[in-house]
Design a protein that fits this description.
The complex is a heterodimer of chains A (401) and B (441). Chain A is an alpha+beta fold. Helices cover 46% and strands 14% of the residues of chain A. The radius of gyration of chain A is 21 Å and the shape is globular. Chain B starts with 9 loop residues before the first helix and ends in a 12-residue tail after the last helix. The chains are: A alpha+beta (401), B alpha+beta (441). The interface between A and B is large, with 48 and 59 residues. Bound molecules: flavin-adenine dinucleotide.
Chain lengths: 401, 441
């Protein structure tokens, strides 16, 4: 039966995540925006709370549980993917940078959840794992990465450079993408679990950023870094008929999560702007046509409408994953819509609130800075549009580049 | 309304609705075997319900004590985007009605200012009207579901928005009377709609002709004149204006609140003139003037607290559903063209600025659709939906319009001439931002 309300069963998890956003993140939001590269120690105790949330009932709010549900049993499911989306929305309503800094909830953890075998799952259980794909000369075009992995007895030897690794400094391990044979293209690119203490892995620097300063962004060098063959995620075979597969499919699960981050930030900006506009005597009236009221109210209503679309597109993608439906198209749709909505809304809110919005006394200017990354990482706006367009038009990546 | 309000045996009506579905010669011609045979199966079920239900209603109607509201579907507390089997079947049927009846006749209906009587009869034969009338009154509506209504509007508008609006005008008044009509009003105005011949047509007239019109500031007024209520004012963009047998008119009550009044077209003091507009030309848009028109004693719909708001919201949501359908038509029509049309040695779809327009059509259309369905499902559950409807309407006003504009753009000069329907969709979709009333979920 068609129902687009958020079910009651999610109330506790939403409430919990909202309390974290409101009572823990918001009060320290500005502090870590200013103190870039300082580890938010307040989050350590959060880690165990999140572990608790993940353990209870098997449907946690973190990245560690994301998996395409096999469907199977009869009836509609509202499961782990929806839980993760709803939880992440509330956390990022609090603060995106801090949400990205919660221990053991890294994108690497999502990759492990999606493709690791039993032994790997056990070995990396409880570790914080970051994702290292991007290189200085290759971001969107991840098939062009140059990092290499060479088989040597029972080990692989990794060489290359990785940049922009979220939580790279604070995590325990990285999922490093490297090629077994650069002449074989995408199919030869594999993901390797690399513990941070492996010799040959060096943290080179931390970036200074426009926003999400609470989250560390690290650059690494891999120089003859030796990892056991058991650390390869997925199949070691180079199957050129399959292309990326495997880890790449992680993105179908994580794109809705990043979209959820954008949905949370957007709501924060709208709520705060509504409060500030109300102080200035501007109120939103949903009964009247939008164009009849104050221009500021009309603009905010447009933002709210786009937010509603982004939110529902995101829930749809997560719901499809929970119900075993392929959702690559829908995952890209929600990421594209939510990413641009966050940027457009937060920037509009700064403008609507004038000097109040632009100054550091409120968080709106910070959200406008934070928002921009949500339209860049996990696939930029343009990359999402390419994926959507190719699907709708039935085009290959060589026809529509 | 004298001969139209003649009493029909309710059991006869139920049986007639049933046989209409089952015996439709259109079934074969429209290649509707799959969905239509399913509809007929459900018609058979509906039919049994109708006979029993209609029997009960017969007594109620004789006593004129209670009205038929249509039961609401049961609630289920799970986020779910799957339509019920019945909704799926209805949607598929409407999809084919749109493809086989509406789309091929869109140009002719636009030129004529109305769908042909045959088209209208065929569409109603396939359930467009019957699904808006409760089984107990001889229709085929088993549950009062705004979500189902949204799916019907969406799929019909995929064929043509102007025809869809025209076809849905009378069913929308039927829904209004189902929800708010008392037994006497239902008996006089709703029950006769299922008649085989000479069934009355109706239109919900709310919009007035001025900038910044809002349904809560009505220029149309009702005054008390001795024992008689009299209505004056002008309604604009009234759908099927010149061929409606009665209107339901939004007007300020003598007490000053917005109200809805049944006004028979034959009453003295009514003038109708064509009011052609940018689009929706198949919907027979008209200006209707009411000059001190004397109303029936029971002309006023009995609206409770918040009902008027809810009706306005329901109408806006219906326009959103129509916008979803037409935006979908644009998307579906542009994809093959962008792939086939060559420029600079390759299909234009190989260029990102074209391909991204298509991607955004897909994204914004889906966003609007989800927002509209959410509004409809809240209406269905009896939840407050003013906010959700306003958000969906804002999306329709901006993004559905952008989709239509991009649709013309993708066709270039060929989009600007009447060789292709994209220019019509551009004209039609502009209406969704400003229309009030006329259609309901
Ligand atoms: C704070 C932060 C955190 C990050 N975290 C991680 C992480 O944890 N792990 C990780 O691996 N990476 C991470 N990234 C990297 C991020 O995913 C990349 O920056 C992103 O994918 C874009 O790659 P790029 O920067 O090389 O830009 P480029 O690929 O060089 O793109 C530049 C511009 O060109 C556009 N463009 C590129 N190709 C096309 C095309 N075919 N068609 C149209 N437009 C195109 C892009 O949309 C973009 O606008 C992070 C980045 C930042 C800034």
């Amino acid at each position: 039966m068609l129902n687009l309300e958020t079910p009651k069963k999610f109330k506790p998890i939403i409430h919990q995540a909202h309390q974290i956003g409101a009572e823990m993140f918001r009060p320290i939001s500005r502090k870590y925006d200013r103190a870039e590269h300082t580890k938010p120690v307040e989050l350590d105790m959060l880690a165990s709370l999140m572990d608790g949330m993940n353990a209870s009932g098997g449907e946690g709010a973190g990245a560690g549980k994301l998996k395409q549900d096999a469907g199977g049993d009869s009836g509609v499911r509202n499961g782990a993917n929806m839980t993760a989306v709803l939880g992440m929305t509330e956390l990022c309503w609090g603060d995106v940078g801090l949400a990205l800094s919660i221990p053991r909830q890294g994108l690497g953890n999502a990759a492990i959840a999606a493709v690791a075998n039993e032994e790997q799952l056990k070995r990396f259980n409880g570790r914080w794992v970051a994702m290292a794909i991007t290189e200085p000369h290759a971001g969107s075009d991840s098939a062009a990465i140059r990092a290499s992995a060479e088989r040597d007895g029972d080990d692989y030897i990794l060489n290359g450079e990785k940049i922009y690794v979220t939580a790279g400094e604070r995590a325990d391990a990285l999922v490093v993408w490297a090629s077994l044979d650069r002449s074989k293209g995408r199919a030869a690119i594999k993901a390797f679990l690399v513990e941070k203490d492996r010799p040959g892995l060096t943290l080179e620097r931390l970036e200074h950023k426009l926003g999400i300063r609470a989250s560390d962004t690290a650059a690494f060098r891999l120089e003859n870094c030796r990892v056991p063959a058991e650390n390869l995620l997925g199949s070691p075979e180079i199957d050129t008929s399959k292309g990326f597969g495997g880890v790449m499919q992680t993105f179908d699960n994580t794109r809705p999560i990043v979209a959820a981050m954008a949905v949370g930030l957007t709501r924060a900006a709208i709520e705060e702007t509504r409060r500030i506009l109300a102080d200035a005597g501007v109120h939103i009236d949903y009964r009247r046509p939008r164009t009849h009221g104050h221009a500021a109210a009309a603009k905010l209503m447009e933002c709210e409408a786009d937010w509603e679309a982004a939110r529902l597109l995101t829930l749809r993608a997560a719901w499809m994953a929970d119900n075993g439906q392929p959702n690559a198209l829908e995952a890209s749709m929600c990421k594209a819509k939510a990413g641009r909505t966050a940027v457009d809304t937060a920037l509009a809110c700064v403008e609507l609130c004038g000097s109040v919005g632009y100054g550091e006394d409120e968080l709106i200017e910070k959200w406008a800075r934070d928002a921009k990354i949500l339209d860049i990482f996990e696939g930029t706006q343009q990359i999402q549009l390419l994926i959507v367009a190719r699907r709708l038009l039935g085009k290959t990546s060589s026809e529509l580049r | 309304m004298t001969d139209k309000t003649r009493r029909m045996d309710p059991i006869g009506l139920g049986v007639r609705a049933l046989t209409r579905f089952a015996g439709s010669p259109l079934t074969a011609r429209l290649k509707l075997h799959g969905p239509a045979s399913a509809l007929i199966r459900s018609g058979a079920q509906v039919g049994f319900g109708a006979v029993n239900g209609a029997g009960r209603q017969f007594k109620a109607m004789r006593n004129w004590t209670s009205s038929s509201r249509g039961s609401r579907p049961p609630r289920q507390d799970l986020f779910d985007l799957t339509p019920s089997d019945e909704q799926q079947m209805i949607a598929e049927t409407m999809e084919q009605v749109a493809a086989e009846l509406l789309r091929p006749n869109a140009e002719a209906a636009e030129a004529a200012g109305a769908p042909s009587p045959e088209l209208e009869a065929q569409a109603n034969e396939l359930g467009v009207l019957a699904m808006a009338i409760p089984e107990t009154l001889g229709g085929a509506m088993s549950e009062r579901s705004p979500v189902t209504s949204a799916l019907i509007a969406e799929h019909l508008a995929h064929g043509d928005m102007g025809i869809a609006v025209s076809l849905l005008a009378t069913p929308s008044v039927a829904l209004l009377l189902t929800d708010y009509g008392n037994a006497a009003q239902q008996d006089a105005f709703l029950a006769p709609m299922t008649a085989d011949e000479d069934a009355p047509t109706a239109s919900l007239a709310i919009t007035e002709e001025r900038a910044l019109f809002a349904p809560h500031d009505l220029g149309t007024r009702v005054r008390q004149d001795g024992g008689t209520l009299r209505l004056s004012g002008t309604k604009s963009l009234v759908v099927n204006g010149s061929r409606s047998d009665f209107y339901v008119v939004a007007a300020r009550s003598p007490e000053g609140a917005p109200g809805l009044y049944i006004v028979e077209a034959a009453a003295p003091g009514i003038q109708v003139e064509a009011q052609p507009a940018m689009g929706l030309r198949a919907a027979g848009l008209s200006r209707v003037r009411f000059d001190d028109v004397a109303l029936r004693d029971d002309a006023a719909l009995d609206l409770g607290e918040g009902d008027y708001d809810c009706i306005i919201a329901s109408a806006r949501a219906a326009w959103c559903a129509l916008a979803v359908g037409t935006a979908t038509a644009v998307r579906d029509y542009c994809i093959p063209y962008a792939n086939e049309r060559q420029a600079f040695g390759e299909p234009i779809s190989h260029r990102q600025s074209v391909a991204f327009m298509i991607a955004n059509m897909g994204i914004e259309r889906d966003g609007l659709r989800l927002a509209t369905l959410r509004a409809a499902s809240r209406l269905e559950q009896g939840e407050d939906a003013l906010r959700e409807v306003q958000l969906a309407r804002t999306l329709a006003a901006r993004h559905a319009m952008q989709i239509a504009s991009d649709g013309v753009q993708i066709f270039g000069g060929h989009g600007f001439v009447k060789e292709y329907p994209v220019e019509r969709w551009y004209r039609d979709l502009r209406a969704t931002a400003l229309m009030e009333g006329a259609v309901l979920l």
